[in-house]
Amino acid sequence: MSQPLDTEALAAGLRPEFRPAALNDDGILTSSNVRRIFSEALDKLEKNLPTFAPTPETAEYGRARALMITKLQEASMWAIRAVSSNKANQVKP
To answer: Is the pLDDT score of 36 beyond 80?
Structure first.
C-alpha cells in the first residue's frame, strides 16, 4: 500500500494561484451542482443542435457546435475554479 501524498510538500514554493485546494463538504457539493448545471445545459443544447456527418455543407455548423462545447467546458472549469478558490469551500488547515 502506498503512503499518502504530502500535499504540503507538493505545494511548497508554488504561488497561491497554482496551489491545490482540498474542498470541504460544502465545496464538493457546490462543485457537483455546478458540474450538473453545465451537464444539463449541454444536454439541452445538444437536443436542439444535433450532430451531423461532416460534409462541406455542415463544416461551419460542426465547427460552431464543437466550439460551443469547448466554451462550455472552459466556463465549467472557471466556475469550478471559483468554487475551489473560495476559502469557505476549502478544508481548514
So the answer is: yes
Q: Which amino acid is at 71?
A: K
Q: CB-based contacts of 91: which residues, under 8 Å, 6+ apart?
A: 22, 23, 24
| CA–CA gap between residue 7 and residue 22 (Å, rounded) | 10
Distance CA 11, CA 3 (A): 17
Under a CB-based contact definition with an 8 Å cutoff, are residues 63 and 57 in contact? no
Decide: pTM greater than 0.70: yes
pLDDT in tens, 43-71: 999 999 998 888 899 899 999 999 999 99
